[in-house]
Amino acid sequence: MNDKPIIEEGQKFPMTIKRLGINGEGIGYFKRNVVFVPGALPGEEITAQVTVVKRNFAEARIVKMRTPSPHRQTPPCPIYEACGGCQLQHMTYDQQLVEKRDLVVQALERYLKGTKVHVEKTIGMEDPWHYRNKSQFQTRLKGTKVIAGLFAEGSHQLLDIEQCIVQHPDTTVITNAVKRILEELKMPIYDGKTMKGIIRTIVVRTGVKTGEIQLVLVTTRSKIPQKELLLERLKKIDTNLVSIVQNINKEKTSLIFGDETITLFGKDTIHEELGELAFDLSARAFFQLNPTQTVKLYNEIKRAAELTGKEKVVDAYCGVGTIGLWLADSAKEIRGMDVVHESVVDAKANAKKQGYAAKYVTGTAEKWLELWSTEGFIPDVLTVDPPRTGLADSLLKTILKVKPKRFVYTSCNPSTLAKDLQQLTKIYRIEYIQPVDMFPQTAQVESVTKLVLK
Length: 454
Hints:
25% of the residues lie in helices and 31% in strands. The chain is α/β, with parallel strands linked by helices. Strand 1 and strand 2 (26-30) form a beta hairpin.
């Protein structure tokens, strides 16, 4: 039996916003019903109108702003409302950092009721704009004009993005120049409905430290008309453009990249540096989107690992090896694993280039931890940086069995972190959680949790 009062679509009522939701929306309550209000900020008093009613919650829009938050500001981006790429530009940056810490606290309250956990203040950016080192803009034709950008939130409408204030300026300049060249040469542009056309996505990545730029054109087939002429024009855009690559994606899919990549001009990779480390990045290699904050994040992982030079460290979900290599100068031994074989190949090459004898293997963390422990290898420190879904259950079980002395958990999703901590606190004590703002203006928050064996 449902004892909650019924809410109906279209209904209007006054409401106070209590906190921020995981997607940046305001959360309030009406007669014990949870109501999500996009664009509303904690502390605001509004008149809300219900737009959607679900079993456990309702969604509403702001009809009237009765008392605005002192932290409300005018979003600097002209297409902020339509785009949906950022969720918090209407909130001052200092307050974004406060609310992101609160998202972590909220998740802990849900899963670890009654456990006192010390959550530090969020580490922010001095300049929280123009930080993204990579853009992936879909292309379409609008009349004879080539447009490129992102799909407006919840629609099939492509927004032509000429300026994006969270993107590195180089990525914007290159993308706009490519659009004009494609237009002048009347190149066949992909049409999502008919699947006709060749050029589907413009991807630009810039080495923030080195200045090197890579351009990737994602096409529906390998043959590009007027290829030589197109290349001549693209090469002249910028002297820092050291790599022009074609990736072929024939599928009707929302995934950007296909499996085949061809270098059309220059190098296969661009060079990038993080602190003392250097990396060569190929078109499909994963690399952190905000290098400035990545250094702060990795330093927090290092602080939590408390290395003395004697530790055996395992870097699970190692990717191209960045975290393990960041710790390598203070550890005795580094091992890592990833299920993506290309990443492991890159990790080995990166370790060799930095002069570290690290051991990287392909496969799941649980398989290798189990295997190594039977050979008598137990890590002193385990570090993980899993995807949004958190740790696999099988890995949690293995960790509780193998019992590394220290465990550093880097997370990009407070909910799955808190859920995993519920299991891990059976044998671990949570020393502290340190939130880090990797994506200013969005509702995303990363954090580093230090766990010590009880």
